Amino acid sequence: MLPGAGGSRPGGSGGGGGGSAAGTPGTLTSLLGEGSKRLPQAAGAGPEMLPGAGGSRPGGSGGGGGGSAAGTPGTLTSLLGEGSKRLPQAVIIGVKKGGTRALLEFLRVHPDVRAVGAEPHFFDRNYERGLAWYRDLMPRTLEGQITMEKTPSYFVTKEAPARISSMSKGTKLIVVVRDPVTRAISDYTQTLSKKPDIPTFESLTFKNRTTGLIDTSWSAIQIGIYAKHLENWLLYFPIGQILFVSGERLISDPAGELGRVQDFLGLKRIITDKHFYFNKTKGFPCLKKAEGSSKPHCLGKTKGRTHPDIDQEVVQRLRDFYRPFNMKFYQMTGQDFGWD
């Protein structure tokens, strides 16, 4: 949904654009309505600071402009009138149903990470609103803190690489990838929960079931051809500026994957095993303490949905279809994700 001209912030309930953490510096800045707005940085210094834009924000309730970590300087920053709104230095660009929300929620535990809660969809749907509008969505940060956002559809948006590069060639990109077959089934399951009358997964998969011709125009299939989409990004960013996170390992070893992400972002390794426990009912790791809370936190009820039973012949045909693309993706990234 596009925000209206006089609009409100993105986000869900309790904290526009992604609540800030307990005892942190973000809420405080916003509440006092203070905090500096800086002029653009010199070239090569990272995303530029733009003067205030008076633009609208994508909608939701509450204030704060972006989540910050528990026990960090986010809430205090805002209340004390400190911090600046910066364009993001790092963006989670994909992929849908790969584990992007889990990654961002886990990252927000870190005191030096602040993020917009809702998906801004700036580089695919809202680009005409301009960078000043985009920057105004961001939470306030102190020097040394990283501003982030995540919009998984960027990875498959043709214009996104050039647009992000135009904002800052130094932007760090993160892609959470997952076995493309299980990703497609998860994608379908999400759609099915909203539209129970859609055709079966099997019928949508094929252009011609008899010949086994896969319908690559179906987005659930198209998104998983990772090598094809990555080629577009490599026209604008070196491979070393893109981190590929395993959606499977994010579940089986969240602390290990978060260690890689913290290293990539130049952050101290603060998020470790002690922050997680495994919820056997949902089949997902959960945070022992969520940002802004003393209680354990698991992802919402929409995560961990039971997938419908899919004809195993269809699953095998999809595995055969994706295999050469997966092999190429492994070669491009230098990582073997272990998908069949």
UniProtKB/TrEMBL annotation:
It is found in: Endomembrane system; Golgi apparatus membrane. Residues 1-81 are annotated as: Disordered. Keywords: Disulfide bond, Glycoprotein, Golgi apparatus, Membrane, Signal-anchor, Transferase, Transmembrane, Transmembrane helix. Its main location: membrane. Coiled coil: none annotated. Belongs to the sulfotransferase 1 family. Residues 88-323 form the Sulfotransferase domain. Disulfide bonds join 286-298. It holds the Pfam family Sulfotransfer_1. One of its GO terms (cellular component) is Golgi membrane. It is a single-pass type II membrane protein. It is an enzyme of class 2 (transferase). Its EC number is 2.8.2.-. GO terms for molecular function: [heparan sulfate]-glucosamine 3-sulfotransferase activity. It comes from the Eukaryota. Residues 1-21, 52-69 have a biased composition (Gly residues). 3'-phosphoadenylyl sulfate binds at residues 97-101, 178, 186, 303-307. This is Sulfotransferase. The active site is at 97 (for sulfotransferase activity).
